[in-house]
């Protein structure tokens, strides 16, 4: 997994909030 993957997770977390 690269940095992009981490960003994707971060965005998903924000969307979940």
Describe this structure in words.
With 17 residues, the chain is an all-alpha fold. The chain is built from one helix and no strands. It has one helix at residues 3-16. It is rod-shaped, with a radius of gyration of 8 Å. The model has no long low-confidence stretch (mean pLDDT 86).
The dominant shape is rod-shaped
Q: How many runs of DSSP E, i.e. beta strands?
A: 0
- Residue-averaged pLDDT: 86
Gyration radius over CA: 8 Å
Largest sheet: none
What's the short story on this structure?
This protein is mostly helical and 17 residues long. It is built from one helix and no strands. The mean pLDDT is 86.
Any descriptors?
mainly alpha; 17 residues; 0% strand
List the helices and strands and how they pair.
Blueprint: H1 3-16
């Amino acid at each position: 997994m690269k940095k992009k993957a981490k960003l994707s997770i971060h965005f998903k977390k924000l969307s979940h909030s």
